[in-house]
Fold these 2 entries.
Entry 1:
Amino acid sequence: MSPIVAAVLQAVQLTMADPGTAPLPYPAIGVGTWAWGNRFLWGYDPAQDAELEATFRLALDLGLTFFDTADSYGTGRWTGRSEMLLGRFCSALGPDQRRRLQVATKLAPFPWRLGRHGFRRAFEASARRLNGHLRRVQLHWSTARYAPWQEGPLLDGLADLVLAGDVAELGVSNMGPRRLRQVVNHLARRGVRLTSLQVQLSLLSPEPIAAGGVADVCRELGVELIAYSPLALGLLARSGDASLPMPRGPRAVLFRRLEPQLASLRERMGSIAAAHGAPLSAVALNWCRAHGALPIVGLRSEAQAEMAAGALQWRLSLQDRQGLDAMALELPQRMPANPFQSA
């Protein structure tokens, strides 16, 4: 057992023994499963499934209990693979481990999913793939920018699922401050609380934490903020060493465009990382946590699970967070915005 695994297990055991002594007052870290089944961007191969299950089990043992997936994850014949694998891995756990899990999925508002019952079949299919291990259902993206008439009935249908007890919690994704307020008020009239909002948030996509951004609105309304792509598709985990190979496929195009501007930011991240004996990726995750967001980091190996769990053991100082904020907000080029992000 590596030293980091031993240290994290000890911390988890202490926290479980006394729920009032959580080691950090920050949000936890969740696990994203976008890569589980995605061949186009992440090079998925079914031969990886055993390693993915080992990663899942280790992550859970190390205190990473929130797992996020979606019905559209997976490419080609692997569409739905992420949910299927997660459901299979959950079902193989013992009862005590299953009780610690929080599984959330997202349903895509495809053009053919219309009306209040437009998600019913999709929800049932996701629940089957997940073998019933589902706590939160989320609208995958907002249609407010291109088909505003579609979104309201779909949200009402999701609220119906909560009110019927088919799922415990409801979340949304890719919404800005104005739309978030509207949705919270609409659901409140139905007697349903909006649990979470998921947005792209990282040092290379800091818009949510700018003044008047959606992070402020989440705090005001009591909505959990979830940060997806907290490592900017892996850019924020790289040291900048010129000898490091570029990823294959579309990510390489993005890396080549954004990497030239990152030297100063990486130097600042590196000094923080060195002070904590941590990798750059842990700094990026803790920056999200310092803003009250739960980062969901994609995990495909046990080493990555150890990294994420290790980041739970420390936090950024206010001075470090503010310094990183300033650098992030001044970067001339950022991650591409989600085209479905509403205002």
Entry 2:
Amino acid sequence: MNDKRNALVKGMVFDIQKFSIHDGPGIRTTVFLKGCPLSCLWCHNPESQQREPEISFIPEKCIGCGWCFENCPPKGHVMENGGHVLHRELCIRCGKCTEKCYAGANTLIGREMMVEEVLADVLKDLPFYENSGGGMTLSGGEPLYQMEFTAALLAEAKGKGLHTCLETCGFAQLSQFMRILPDVDLFLYDFKESDPDRHLRYTGAPLQLILENLAALDKAGASLILRCPIIPGMNDRADHFHAIADKASKLKHVLAVNIMPYHPLGESKLGRLGRPGQIENKSFPDENTVTGWINAIQDRTSVPVTRG
């Protein structure tokens, strides 16, 4: 595919976050793509799971201007019992209700963008990348879920001399990873759960393919950081901590392990998207607990273990 065709490839983006400092080295711009093959119970970005645009609805913000009542094509926005209600079974995700919702009660999550549009936005902060050793990170969702867009955007970014990171759940075809390997400087690779049965129960996907892809990337010489979400009562177990340490030690190209403590912000997002919550314990783990997790892993590996 030539450069012009790369630039015109379209993808579904739900956020472009500037000045990211936790998604790879230096100051970065993180591009979040919609769509994921996993459905993790603790997902911090549930708005990324579905490929299609979605409406985030916060009725408490409604000021009663009437725009969405009058302009929603299927008439999904109504007043019932003195309150603003969105009947999601009627919603066609057109985003019309968000166009003049100045109070922010209705927000469209996800918009189609061309590679050249995204890259133009990313390149606005080029001086910050050059001074800090940063660059562009693709996240999601799962970037490989939109393979053509991800491959084209990475190729164009490398063509502009950008340092690139890819955050991935690892659940994709190996051929996809090998295709983008030349254009990825660092893989931020999720290692969510080491027990196959628990992995399937917590994420909705089998573990084996993820482990096979991780091993293949390491064998190919890819630079890797293991990103490990730790959720109290689910995977905060000694055997899982030991498995993380053993995996980091046995692979040759793991630069670090990032521990990602559970935070309950994803639960509030689920409510705004009209979906039920998944986690009963909705509190942040305290600092002593997180430090204990880190130490339990660091005691068994020489690979640096830090909070991500």
